[in-house]
């Protein structure tokens, strides 16, 4: 069985390095950190390292280790929550001896020596819990592991509001909160935004255009981000803002980047499938939550019109 093969590889290696995607969200950090803590608790003599770049304002959830090039020699590398290789944070991930991919995104880039990809799962953190349960004691569940996995599940389900929340997801969450951590404090920390982020959400509401069919679109200029003193990862707090409006069925937010860099495109939907649209513009992701890139204003206008047409067609 595939899960048994993963457990066999974990048992076989003395050094295990776990990677996740760039610009990490709670699920990336939760699945990475939760798996690392679970392995370390089960095998205290192993070296288990977390690799990747800066984690932004999520450093309270997890931080990275100082991983050297030499650490990859004869190492098992596990990439979690990362659909395609360009998005792996720290491209040394493919320099180990063996590579495992664990993910819940569509498997458009089937990299690795061993792949466990379940697009129907709410999150990669949910998959890590399933792996721990399947291990029958070969991996450990403790308060540290549970806190990280719970954060990942809460993050990727939008606090259990999204349609990727299954009965199994809620069963996993129920099992995790039986461990000795404070889920209420964690939820409050994840739900908190700064005054500057609240002002950005106000900007989105004030500048949002909504088509007759319910396609929302808004552009966030770099000047607004700079005026509010926000970092790139802090801007993400505004991505779900249009979805709070009953009139909005699907929406796109264009975030201007530094000179010469493409616009960051955030696509979200309450029903119409939008990851196909994202793939047409150097992106991809989940059916109802995807990202892309827009090189210029012409591409911004093209994406906006395509989303409006997609939402209009979904009514029939």
Task: Annotate the secondary structure layout.
Elements: H1 2-12, E1 15-19, H2 26-42, E2 47-50, E3 76-80, E4 98-103, E5 114-117, H3 124-134, H4 143-156, H5 167-176, H6 183-191, H7 195-207, E6 209-210, E7 215-220, H8 222-228, H9 232-235, E8 250-255, E9 263-269, H10 275-279, E10 284-285, E11 289-294, H11 297-314
Parallel strand pairs: 1-2, 1-3, 3-4, 4-5, 7-8
Antiparallel strand pairs: 6-7, 8-9, 9-11, 10-11
Helix pairs in contact: 2-3, 2-4, 3-4, 4-6
Your description of this structure?
This protein has helices spanning 2-12, 26-42, 124-134, 143-156, 167-176, 183-191, 195-207, 222-228, 232-235, 275-279, 297-314, and strands at residues 15-19, 47-50, 76-80, 98-103, 114-117, 209-210, 215-220, 250-255, 263-269, 284-285, 289-294. The chain is 38% helix and 17% strand. It starts with a helix and ends with a helix. The strands form 2 sheets. Strands 6-7-8-9-11-10 form a 6-stranded mixed β-sheet, with helices on both faces. It has a 5-stranded parallel β-sheet with strand order 2-1-3-4-5, with helices on one face. It folds into 2 domains: 2-191, inorganic pyrophosphatase (n-terminal core), CATH 3.90.1640.10; 197-314, Diaminopimelate Epimerase, Chain A, domain 1 (Roll). The chain has 316 residues and is of the alpha/beta class. The chain is built from 11 helices and 11 strands.
